[in-house]
Specification:
Blueprint: H1 2-20, E1 22-26, H2 42-47, H3 52-57, E2 65-69, H4 71-80, H5 95-108, E3 113-116, H6 124-130, H7 132-150, H8 171-187, H9 194-202, H10 213-231, E4 234-236, E5 239-243, E6 247-256, E7 262-270, E8 275-277, E9 280-285, E10 289-299, E11 303-312, E12 324-330, H11 335-364
Parallel strand pairs: 1-2, 2-3, 5-12
Antiparallel strand pairs: 4-6, 6-10, 7-9, 7-11, 8-10, 11-12
Helix pairs in contact: 4-5, 4-7, 6-7, 8-10
């Protein structure tokens, strides 16, 4: 009888123990392109009460739950809850669905533990191999964004294996991810703006196990286009210059399309020794503006040559964005070369005169 009572008690307690360890994961494949629009309206279908994500949140409030959430997905839903655009010609239909889902998510998670995944829900093992330092930023950014979205404190537990699944990102796309990540990292040394921080964090979505082969390729190309556009916001205008004097001041235009001031160094490196060009230190370009600098150019020898104009950080000589190439075509001779040539001609003339005098003397004798 005692054994029966104990067994019955344990059986009754088992569902409660299971409930105490219930983990609900809020993740989904990527839908928003890196240029802002949505690939399609598939996310809206997931958010409906009968959709995959809707079924998880449209349920009664209960205790003893742990919600594991990707903040990148929540950011997409927040964007969808306002006016958004599709990459197709279809009319967006998810605004009200997104608003309802967000409201229910905040309600149903009240009183429960919430854990923020690394932003974008990347494959942790792959992220550790490709960019271990960046993975730390993904965790920090994921927690910050989720706390802002839910209006409450959430956990971030990098040492706990909350992420599931493996990414099948191909080697060429892994290289593309690494190249884009490095480009944004270099740019972030001189530019501190939320749009750059978000794009840098969003690259983690390319490592997500939820993406199929077609989506991995589609969004990788989208990311490359967005990174190139971001990097081009800070640049030097390439140009061709015709020089007709041995020393001249020429205009150099630096463009900053970010909404913050940017301070940089500019290294001027001639490809040949035909010209000498001075570099610039601690140049501040105001937000959303162009700044024209004066290059001091000394011509050593006539002809055409190229000069590399490279933006670097004030504290190091590493490039921030790709170099600009300037073409110089000089038709003048530097005064030093002129004096050297004239002196050589005079010496040759004197030598010829001396030779002629010696010949005349020999004939007289």
């Amino acid at each position: 009888l005692a054994l029966f009572v104990v067994s019955t008690f344990l059986l009754l307690m088992m569902p409660q123990a299971t409930a105490a360890n219930q983990v609900i994961r809020i993740t989904a494949p990527l839908y928003q392109t890196f240029t802002g629009e949505f690939r399609n309206d598939g996310l809206a279908q997931l958010l409906t009460p009968s959709g995959e994500l809707g079924l998880k949140v449209f349920q009664p409030i209960a205790k003893n739950r742990t919600w594991v959430i990707d903040a990148a997905l929540i950011d997409e839903v927040i964007l969808m809850s306002s006016e958004y655009q599709l990459a197709t010609e279809a009319e967006p239909a998810g605004k009200e669905i997104a608003i309802s889902w967000l409201t229910q998510l905040k309600r149903v998670t009240t009183g429960n533990d919430v854990v923020a995944l690394a932003y974008g829900n990347p494959d942790i093992a792959l992220a550790k191999r490709l960019a271990p330092s960046e993975l730390k930023n993904y965790f920090v950014y994921g927690q910050e964004r989720l706390q802002l979205a839910l209006g409450r404190i959430v956990k971030s537990e990098p040492d706990v294996q909350w992420s599931v699944g493996k990414s099948a990102l191909s080697n060429p796309l892994r290289k593309s991810y690494s190249d884009n990540r490095k480009a944004l990292t270099r740019l972030s040394r001189v530019v501190d703006t939320p749009e750059l921080t978000q794009l840098r964090a969003r690259l983690a979505q390319l490592l997500s196990p939820t993406l199929d082969k077609d989506s991995r390729e589609y969004f990788s190309y989208s990311a490359t286009a967005a990174v190139n556009e971001m990097v081009r916001k800070l640049r030097i205008n390439s140009g061709k210059y015709q020089i007709t004097t041995s020393t001249v001041m020429l205009p150099l235009t630096v463009i900053n399309e970010f909404d913050v001031d940017v301070t940089v160094d500019i290294a001027m490196t001639p490809i040949s020794s035909r010209v000498i060009v001075e570099s610039f230190d601690n140049v501040t370009i105001p937000a959303n503006s162009k700044k024209q600098l004066e290059m001091n150019v000394d011509v050593v020898a006539p002809g055409e040559t190229m000069v590399s104009a490279l933006i670097t950080g004030p504290e190091d000589d590493n490039e921030v964005v790709p170099e600009a190439l300037l073409t110089f075509n000089s038709t003048v001779i530097d005064s030093r070369v002129t004096w050297f040539t004239t002196g050589s001609a005079i010496l040759l003339l004197l030598a010829a005169v001396a030779q002629s005098v010696r010949r005349v003397r020999r004939r007289v004798k």
